[in-house]
Amino acid sequence: METLYKDLASRIGLGQSQLISDIWRLIANPEEARLLLALPGNAPALAEKCGLPEHEVAQMLQTLFVKGVAFPSAKTDPPTYKMSRDLVQFHDASILWPDASQEFLDLWQEFMEREWPEVAITFSQMMPRPFTRVIPVGVTIQAKTHILAFEDIKEIVDNAQTISVTKCTCRLTAHKCDKKLEACLQINRGAEYNIARGTGRKLTKEEALEIVRDAEQDGLIHVVMNKQEVDQFICNCCPCCCQTMPILIQRGISVVEPSRFAALVDPETCSSCGTCIERCYFSAITLEEGESASVDQSKCMGCGLCQVTCPTEAISMAEVRPSDFIPQKLFG
């Protein structure tokens, strides 16, 4: 039976991790584990392959879908199911399992604390580009520069067909701050998946923008997949619980890419109050006595959080990277 769960861990590239094997053990019983290892397939084919009644297989697939470890494709009839393709998908989907025990959530956090940093280093070395990127603020205060459609959060929301919100999986397990928990937005396909699974709450566009406004004021950073089409999620990340931000800030592991922008301070209007320094998680802003604040653009992630609360509106966002900095597709 131990082999079953090591095999599942191996499917997502972590067969060496006892913690990942243990997480699989908590979410899938042996029969479900065998079915997952038989994927991809549809219910009739899997029933024949596994020697089980088709109605039992169909019910197990639905259960695994709700658990966030089996994903149906509507391109075939009946649907073809695939298991979690990688660690990130396994993490983000399974933590929202409605019946997840505290033991399950705590085990995920133990993995994030003990093993994830080293795994992230391997990921960052294997990938040509980080798999996520920052989007600058754009609801509370518009950036005073040219922003393209796929980095303008208001336009992304306005153009979305379906929007949902879920609890932040990182804050749900880490509990390191009191930032808003229901803060992860899903767009279009991502929203449809979470609504169908029962883990996402459908939003109007105004409700979504209100969550974004609150996130900007609360010091949360907008993060999306690192490609031009935003059709999966808009995370609102804190610097302490997030998968990517703490290891970037504390260890310099590049699994999230900056936006195309960097903060720019107008020395004529800067009051040297220091508010921006408190808002910057990346140590990109300094303030010398008797001087205005200054920004180290090599450290600035272009999130714009410093701009949101600047009392004299001395901070704007300047383009420092070309429009083709954002790839058309992930790893493209």
Notes on the structure:
- The protein is an alpha+beta fold.
- It has two domains: 2-114, Orthogonal Bundle (Arc Repressor Mutant, subunit A), CATH 1.10.10.10; 132-325, 2-Layer Sandwich (Alpha-Beta Plaits), CATH 3.30.70.
- The chain is 40% helix and 15% strand.
- It has 15 helices and 13 strands.
- The chain has a seven-stranded mixed beta sheet with strand order 6-4-5-8-7-3-9.
- Helix 1 crosses helix 2 and helix 9 (153-159) packs antiparallel against helix 12 (205-217).
- The chain is elongated.
- The two termini are 40 Å apart.
- The model has no long low-confidence stretch (mean pLDDT 93).
Oligomer: single chain
Number of helices: 15
How many DSSP-defined strands? Answer: 13
Query: What is the CATH topology assignment of the largest domain?
Result: Alpha-Beta Plaits
Strand order within the widest beta sheet: 6-4-5-8-7-3-9
Q: Please, what is the average pLDDT? A: 93
Fold blueprint:
Blueprint (H helix, E strand, L loop, with lengths): L1 H10 L6 H10 L2 H9 L4 H8 L3 H14 L2 E4 L6 E4 L3 H8 L7 H13 L1 H11 L5 E4 L17 H7 L3 E5 L1 H6 L7 E6 L1 H9 L3 E2 L2 H13 L3 E5 L7 E5 L7 H7 L4 E2 L3 E5 L9 H5 L5 E2 L7 E2 L9 H4 L6 E5 L13
Parallel strand pairs: 3-9
Antiparallel strand pairs: 1-2, 3-7, 4-5, 4-6, 5-8, 7-8, 10-13, 11-12
Describe the structure in brief.
The protein is 40% helix and 15% strand. It contains 15 helices and 13 strands. Strand 1 and strand 2 form a beta hairpin.
